[in-house]
Amino acid sequence: MSVTPVPSFTLDAAINGSFGFASSAILLPGTPGSDACIRVTNMGPCPISIALGASTVAVTQSTGLLVMAGQSLFLTLGTATYIAGVACGGPGNSSTVNVATGS
Known about the structure:
single chain; mainly beta; Jelly Rolls; four-stranded antiparallel sheet; 8 strands
């Protein structure tokens, strides 16, 4: 059996938000220009689809990266300043997320 190490993450800042059935974008917390990565934790009951980008970033259920309920995803930050998200499923679905930037 192989062992996968947990990534090292030094927190800069974090924010909670909610993604519903329509795509919406959240300004990344902290100082994204000097941070190397982002951690997205889906604390809600529905899977969410996410995408990183500028203030105009948008995502659909089929075009983003999927974060299952109760799971976290680590991504390289690059030049992104916003994260867009949408809850998967039907109207009325939503999930709360914790978005953290750091290195």
